[in-house]
Design a protein that fits this description.
Blueprint lengths: L1 H8 L2 H41 L1
Length: 53
């Protein structure tokens, strides 16, 4: 029973999981932002290319 109570009170694993979730959330935001900017940039270059022809 002593091992189980120590396991329940140990929060070191929970902290690592929280850091992992924060890192995953930041990665999703960065990927979404890059995707959005890439689409807008592609549209801009297509417009410029069309105007140069």
């Amino acid at each position: 029973m002593n091992i189980f109570s120590r396991f329940v009170r140990d929060e070191s694993g929970a902290t690592a999981i929280e850091y992992g979730l924060i890192a995953a959330l930041i990665a999703v935001v960065v990927i979404s932002a890059v995707s959005l900017v890439g689409t807008n940039l592609s549209t801009t270059f297509t417009t410029i290319s069309g105007n140069l022809k």
